[in-house]
User: What shape does this take?
Amino acid sequence: MVCLGFFDCMHNGHVTLLERAKAMAAQCGAQVALFTFDNNHFRTLGKSTKLLYTFDERLSIYQSLGVQTVFRCTFDEQFRSLSGERFLKSLLAYDICGVVCGADYTCGSDRMGAEQVKAFLKDVCPVEIVPLLQQEGEKVCSSLVRKLLLECRIRQANALLSQPFFFTGKVRHGRNVGEKMGFPTVNIQLDADKICPQGVYGGKVFCQGKSYDAIVNVGAKPTFDCGDVTVEAHILHFCGDLYGEDVKISLLQYLRPIQKFNDARSLAQQLERDVKAVEDDKIRSQRQQ
Assistant: This one.
């Protein structure tokens, strides 16, 4: 049972589609598969749009939601020239017992729509068209998630996602400026094709099988005249060496924009306030549970 789309993330609309595919797969004893592109297809279309997640990050999300097989394809000029019918015929080379897609799904250079896909495959396998999901009058889609992130509305974006927005990467050596200030950080390089919601956030760092509260800087470090865009997290109440390890850094609350301070002491004082904001928010969340 294959889900058709791009699946740049797994928002609530995608999850609804996937749950329908799971139910259909269970009826015929099939696996749940998903089709996606393994590159930034926007570039082939001549757009500068960045992705919400890297391909490896998306694979981890798909797996966490129960996807068993991923059909991957590189969106290049050759693929772009395929008609909808040619694309579907190539898909039928696999042992597919059904297709699930959203009501706004299109494929091929001729932009074959969901109802056309259903008609084309009527004698081959069932096609389930899942109605679009709306929240507060807006269609839940990757474009909306991307918009909310770029506006630093992280709580609203997370409410649409299957899990809080995150970055992954291998911890690398930085300049150790934070450590000298009493705020050691883990640093990971931001993928050039990934969206960058610049700002300072409260979040979580997942490492060594555990999760820790953190304050996260996404972007440059202007106080030290460093324009490199990175993801840098100070883990609260953590002592250890994570260099060379893979970590996952989730964003949970927006604290403030990135700003240039007069000196390291002023920055350290602000970081203390950021830590308190994260701890206070955690206390409020626990009381509400």
